[in-house]
Specification:
The protein is α/β, with parallel strands linked by helices. The chain has a single domain, classed as 3-Layer(aba) Sandwich (Rossmann fold), CATH 3.40.50.720. It has nine helices and seven strands. It has a seven-stranded parallel beta sheet with strand order 3-2-1-4-5-6-7, sandwiched between helices. α1 packs across α9 and α5 packs parallel to α7. The relative contact order is 0.15.
């Protein structure tokens, strides 16, 4: 098992804040140089970049919309131009819109728009980046891809009112499995299935407390814990197509 990531470069999507920020900081503490993308959070991205550089690694923050494959090409090309190679890909970027069935059935245009957006962010971009960077990793003889999914992909416990988010997270789980086969043995491809970490903004404290009470460990998962999972999978030499379930032991649906 590797001890550190000195000389490696990681590309992490959606890493200006929250879970993504903790992931890049954790990888940087192991010595990895960092490239990360953001869409709108420019000030947070600059703060994260400064925090990374304070850890003694090189860092590059790139603005780009992952639903635009030309933007994906531009960002990966820039990463390779600056760092030479990208050794680690973490598909972290996510969106969590509430999509009740009644609303989706009422408006086909809204369904089409929301479904395309969820597919783009949770499936198309991770698959495209996984293929594009994964093939380069394979050619270079070493690489790691980690996808952030959802606990339902491991627990088989879908919950109501977030169907498009969940369907596409199941899709990302499938992408993990197929890329693990396609890119072996040089590149490992694994996923992390978090439980309650960052609640939806529309959830009040009372609702969040109710959710915590339904988790066996009576707590949310901290972003730092997901980041530690990422580091574990990147350093591991014996896992591919694996899922790390970090959900506080949830055994029943929580949302």
């Amino acid at each position: 098992m590797l001890k550190d990531l000195n000389g490696k470069t990681a590309f992490v999507t959606g890493a200006a804040k929250r879970i993504g920020r903790e992931i890049v900081l954790a990888l940087a503490r192991k010595g990895a140089n960092i490239v990360f993308n953001y869409r709108k959070s420019a000030s947070e991205a600059q703060e994260t970049k400064s925090a990374l550089e304070a850890l003694g690694v090189r860092a590059l923050a790139l603005q780009g919309d992952l639903t635009d494959l030309d933007a994906c090409d531009r960002m990966t090309d820039k990463a390779s131009e600056v760092f030479g190679t990208v050794d680690i890909l973490v598909n972290n970027a996510s969106d969590f819109p509430r999509t009740p069935l009644v609303e989706l059935a009422r408006d086909s245009a809204q369904f089409e728009r929301l479904f395309a957006q969820q597919v783009d962010i949770h499936m198309r971009a991770p698959l495209y980046l996984g293929i594009r960077l994964g093939l380069r990793m394979k050619e270079n003889g070493w690489g790691r891809i980690v996808n952030i999914t959802d606990r339902v992909t491991a627990r088989s416990q879908a919950y109501s009112n977030w169907i498009l988010y969940l369907v596409t997270k199941y899709g990302l789980f499938g992408i993990t499995q197929t890329l693990a086969e396609e890119l072996r043995p040089e590149v490992t491809v694994n996923s992390i299935a978090p439980g309650l970490v960052v609640p939806p903004p529309e959830f009040g404290e009372a609702k969040v407390e109710q959710l915590r009470e339904r988790v066996p460990l009576k707590r949310q998962v901290e972003p730092e814990e997901i980041a530690a999972d990422v580091v574990h999978l990147v350093l591991s030499e014996g896992k591919t197509g694996a899922v790390l379930l970090t959900d506080g032991g949830t055994g029943t649906h929580t949302y």
